[in-house]
Amino acid sequence: MLSVRGVTVRYDDVVALDDVSFDVGPEETVAVLGSSGSGKTTLLRVVAGLHVPDSGTVAWEGSDLAAVPPHLRRFGLVFQDFALFPHLDVAGNVGFGLRVAGMGGSDLASRVAHALQRVGLSGLGARRIEELSGGQAQRVALARTLATTPRLLLLDEPLGSLDPALRRGLAADLAATLAAEPVPTLLVTHDTDEAFALADRVAVMDRGRIVRIDTPEAVWQQPETAAVAALLGHSVVSGSFAGMTPGPGSSLAIRPDAVHLSPDGEHEATVIASAFRGPEWVVTVDVGGVRVPAAAAAHRRSGERVQVTVDRRAIAEVTP
Asked: Which of 181, 187, 204, 250 is the most buried (most CB within 10 A)?
């Protein structure tokens, strides 16, 4: 089990990590979710041993790793840009770390074949790297790391360089791969969908601190702070909304699925804008002076008066 306790990293006057603590349990995937500059990549580098923190500890199964160099931690790191070797074919890339460790012959071939099977690339060992699609390259990079049987898998924005359509499909494939032969996994990402699709728990980072950590469902339903709600795409309202009023010093976090156009809705609203988003239209409506997104069955004209229903279960009170 990975245990991070009180890790702090400073760059001159900038605090990149501020007293960060969390665990990754056996067979668990934890996603660190944060915007650019939140400290998530620095945290991954500290865990990998590529950066020494100013204070705090990183331990594995109770043993402090401070004196253990990166190559002896037995952690596998998959970079965002995949870092594949263009002069080697797929099998050569996947088996590279094993050959460096002295493995060869049938043992090497068997391990490479199993790693490629795990990521759905069986039979592609002879293919050249430049012949791969972006999704296939991502799988080769993952297979190369899994082939070395790491005790912890580290993923740096694993789907970040792929287009949205491919990203959705590969997120499901990656989740299935991790579930089939579980490896404790820590990934960092700025993409909420990616974090929710892959992780057992999500740790939300803001300005170098973990401000919320729980299951994806709990984080989505109860973001607890305005910063977390905003990162998730919730509308944060400081005043009243649809008959709900937050407590002193608090705000309301309105989820994107909270408001729907309905002919018998209990609230009047004015359409501000309308956009087609695949399976449905999403319109921005003004409800009592508050602008929020709402699901609609068809296009609505700007300025049109409509009725909306509000699901109070999709609204949570949050602190600053």
From this structure: 204
